[in-house]
Amino acid sequence: MSAISCWTFAPADGVPEPVAPYSHAVAYGDLLHVTGQMPIDPATGLLVPGGVAAQTDAVLGNLQRVLERCGSSLDAAVSVRAYLTSFDDYAEFNAAYERWFAPPLPARTCIGVTGLAVGALVEIDLIAARHGTVTRAVAD
After folding, report:
1. 26, 110, 116, 127: which one is catalytic?
2. Cα(57)–Cα(25) distance, rounded to whole angstroms?
3. How many Cβ atoms sit within 10 Å of the Cβ of residue 74?
4. Mean pLDDT of all residues in 111-140
5. How far, in whole angstroms, is CA 11 from its chain's centroid?
6. Is the dihedral of CA 103, 23, 44, 48 positive or negative?
7. 105 vs 29, 69, 76, CA distance in Å?
8. Which pLDDT does position 136 carry in this prediction?
9. For the purposes of burial, counting CB atoms within 10 Å of the CB of 46, is it exposed (0-12), middle (13-18) or buried (19 or more)?
10. Predicted local distance difference test score (pLDDT) of residue 3
11. Is residue 78 within 8 Å of residue 107, measured between CB atoms?
12. Most buried of the four, 18, 47, 111, 126, by CB within 10 Å?
């Protein structure tokens, strides 16, 4: 039976403080389950200004730092869930998202919601391999 490991980081680690009672990441077996990150600047604790592209970059930067502190990376992402407050932002979100992941891309679900914590436009959570990177094959 695998042990469960949990991590919660401080802004000094480059990760925003949790906005609710949760761990930033939980590992079970070979997988890391990373809590949805908000577009919060860890240095100021404030919502990143700008549209969905700026907020997507902030969220993925926060996710990257959580993964790095757990011994993983965005390259090891196997499944991503994104939450958008407006699907009018979908194309802009996708353009920002694609800058962070090399093909072939992880599995992804994008969900429209009526609101997010702290007034964010986007939130993303993910599951990643705990160590190393995922070898992805492109289907023939």
Report:
1. 110
2. 19
3. 19
4. 83
5. 16
6. positive
7. 23, 22, 10
8. 55
9. exposed
10. 85
11. yes
12. 126
pTM listed for this prediction? 0.91
pLDDT of residue 111: 97
pLDDT digits (tens, 9 = 90+) for 76-96: 999 999 999 999 999 999 999
Rg of the chain over all Cα atoms, to the nearest angstrom: 15
Q: 110 an active-site residue? A: yes
Q: What is the 3-state secondary structure (H, E, C) of the chain?
A: CCCEEEECCCHHHCCCCCCCCCCCEEEECCEEEEEEECCECCCCCCECCCCHHHHHHHHHHHHHHHHHHCCCCHHHEEEEEEEECCHHHHHHHHHHHHCCCCCCCCEEEEEECCCCHHHCCEEEEEEEECCCCCCCCCCC
Length of the chain: 140
Q: Which position has the token pair 């700008």?
A: 50
Largest Cα span, the chain: 47
